[in-house]
Specification:
single chain, 410 residues, alpha/beta, Alkaline Phosphatase, subunit A, 2 domains, 8-stranded mixed sheet, 5-stranded antiparallel sheet, 15 helices, globular, binds zinc ion
Length: 410
C-alpha cells in the first residue's frame, strides 16, 4: 500500500543549540520523548534548512517554504498574513498591517505599548469601524480584533503602496511617530497620509470612549491609541490544491499560521476555544485525526516551545517538549498517512531569538526507507537517511512518497 495523505506536524521553534543548563544537551535531546522517538525509529530522519543555509527565518517565511511557497516569490511582509488570520479577507493589492492598542498620556507620550494588556477590545473596534471615515482618500479600511491588545488593519483602494514606516516608537516614554513613506513613490505617500489620518481619527474616538473612561476610573491604562506596523501588499497565492493536488486543512492557535493557511485555501480546522496549553494540544491532535478522514493534508502547528526559547529558559522548554510528547500519544494515523514532524526554525535559548541552525525532521509511514535513528533531536536526526535538505525540497519529497510527482524526462 502507498500512503496517500500527509500530516505535517510543526513543533514551532523546538529546535535549539546545546544548553549549559541541560549539561550541553539541547531541550529535544534532554526531554523524555517516547512518542517522537517512536516516529524517529520507524521513519527516515534528517535535518532541514527551513529556507536556506544561513537564513534566519520567521515563522511566516519558514511555513511558506515548508508548504511549497518559496518566500522569495510569495512573501510580502507579515501584515497581510496576520490580517488574513485575524479575519480580514485580503484581496490582491490590499495593504495589511499588524496593529495593537496602546496607552498615551495627556502629553502625547506612550506610557504602555500594550494598554495594560487589555483583553476585550470589541467595543473599541466597532466604534472605530463606525466612526472613522477615510472616503475622502478614496480608501476603505478594515479593522479586526486579534488576541488581547492585538488587532489587524487593512486598506483597500487605488494607488496604495506598502512602503511606509510604523508609528510605533518601540519604546515607552516617547510620542508615537508620524508614519512616513519609505520611498518617493506617490503610492507610498498616499498610504502614509491615509494611515496618519486613521491614527488621528481613531485616537479621537478612543479618547472619549466609555470603555476607556471606565478603565481610567478603575486606575487601568486606557487603550487610546492604535499602533500599526508590518505593512505589506497582499500578493497572489495559488491554492494549495492547485499547487499540489491535495485538499488540506490547517490547525493552529497562532493567527500568523492560520492566516497563511487561509491565503493558500487550507480549510480552518482549529477547534474553537483551544489555547496553546497541553490540553489544547490534545484537542488539536484529535482535530487533526478527524480532518485526515476527510482530507489529504493537515498542517498542525504546535506553539509553545518557541516561546520558551524566546524566554531563554531551556528547562521550561525541555518540560514543554516532554508534555507535548505525552499529548502526541493520540497521534495514530492510518496506514494511508505519512507523518512528518519538524520545526519551522530553531529558537535557541542562548540567543532568545530564531537562528539559522537546521531543524530535525522525520518522515514516517508506508514506503519510507527506515534508517538507524532512534531519537528525535537535532544531533541524532543529522545522522539519518535524508541527510540535510532544504525546506523547499520537503513538499516534492512528500509528494513523491505518495506517488503524486510527474516524471522528469522519458
Ligand atoms: Zn515559528
Ligand atoms: Zn519565535
Amino acid at each position: 500500500m502507498t500512503a496517500s495523505k500527509i500530516l505535517l506536524l510543526v513543533l514551532d521553534g523546538a529546535s535549539d543549540r546545546p544548553c549549559e543548563a541541560l549539561d550541553g544537551l539541547t531541550p529535544l535531546q534532554a526531554a523524555d520523548t517516547p512518542v517522537l522517538d517512536g516516529f524517529a525509529s520507524g521513519g527516515i530522519c534528517g535535518i532541514m534548512d527551513p529556507v536556506a543555509p544561513g537564513i534566519r527565518p520567521g515563522s511566516d517565511t519558514a511555513h511558506l517554504s515548508l508548504i511549497g511557497y518559496p518566500p522569495e516569490n510569495y512573501y510580502t511582509g507579515r501584515g497581510p498574513l496576520e490580517a488574513e488570520g485575524a479575519g480580514i479577507h485580503m484581496e490582491e493589492g490590499m495593504i495589511g498591517f499588524r496593529a495593537n492598542f496602546a496607552t498615551i498620556d495627556e502629553n502625547g507620550v506612550i506610557t504602555d505599548r500594550r494598554a495594560g494588556r487589555i483583553r476585550e477590545t470589541a467595543a473599541l473596534i466597532s466604534a472605530i469601524r463606525e466612526g472613522v471615515d477615510l472616503s475622502s482618500h478614496g480608501v476603505e479600511f478594515m479593522f479586526e480584533s486579534g488576541k488581547g491588545h492585538r488587532a489587524a488593519f487593512a486598506l483597500k483602494g487605488e494607488g496604495l503602496g506598502a512602503g511606509v514606516t510604523s508609528n510605533d516608537p518601540k519604546h515607552e516614554g516617547m510620542p508615537p511617530k508620524e508614519i512616513q513613506p519609505l520611498g518617493s513613490s506617490p503610492s507610498d505617500a498616499k498610504t502614509a497620509r491615509v494611515c496618519n489620518d486613521f491614527i488621528r481619527q481613531s485616537g479621537e474616538i478612543l479618547a472619549s470612549h466609555p470603555l476607556n473612561t471606565g478603565r481610567q476610573e478603575e486606575g487601568l491604562p486606557p487603550a487610546n491609541i492604535v499602533l500599526i506596523r508590518g505593512a505589506g501588499k497582499m500578493g497572489h497565492f495559488e491554492t494549495f490544491e492547485e499547487k499540489h493536488g491535495l485538499r488540506g486543512s490547517v490547525i493552529s492557535t497562532a493567527t500568523l499560521i492560520t492566516g497563511i493557511g487561509k491565503v493558500v485555501g487550507l480549510h480552518q480546522a482549529t477547534p474553537a476555544g483551544v489555547t496553546g496549553s497541553v490540553a489544547g494540544i490534545s484537542a488539536k491532535v484529535a482535530a487533526a485525526m478527524a480532518e485526515l478522514e476527510e482530507r489529504d493534508f493537515v498542517l498542525l502547528n504546535i506553539k509553545g516551545a518557541d516561546e520558551k526559547g524566546h524566554d531563554g529558559d531551556p528547562v521550561a522548554k525541555m518540560r514543554f517538549i516532554a508534555e507535548c510528547d505525552t499529548a502526541l500519544r493520540d497521534l495514530v494515523p492510518g496506514d494511508d498517512c505519512l507523518v512528518v514532524i519538524c520545526s519551522d526554525h530553531s529558537t535557541p535559548c542562548s540567543i532568545k531569538d530564531h537562528s539559522a541552525d537546521p531543524v530535525p525532521l522525520v518522515i514516517s509511514g508506508e514506503g519510507v526507507r527506515i534508517d538507524d535513528v532512534t531519537h528525535f533531536d537535532e544531533i541524532s536526526c543529522a545522522g539519518g537517511g535524508l541527510n540535510r535538505i532544504s525546506g523547499q525540497s520537503l513538499m516534492p519529497i512528500l509528494l513523491d512518497l505518495i506517488n503524486k510527482t510527474d516524471k522528469y524526462g522519458a
